[in-house]
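FAQ: What does the model actually see?

It sees only this:
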Amino acid sequence: MVKHKPLGRLVGAFKTVSTKRINEFRGTPGIPVWQRNYYGHVIRNDQELDLIREHVASNPLQWAMDRENPENTGRHQVDVWLYKEA
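And it is asked to produce this:
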């Protein structure tokens, strides 16, 4: 008999194991890797799917300005590249 676990427990286990491995690799024990929760959403049509795909593709580009990015200088990444101090 196959036991089914709630999605939240599966995601939590994945985050725990991957955080330990990432921190072992980086030599940064105990440093958080993931945000605390996750957001689940049922995709109901092609338009929603397209919007989610666009978000997933463009979201990494926003990391430079993210308030949780420890390297966020408050300036857009292009400005950082163009006006980098020598």
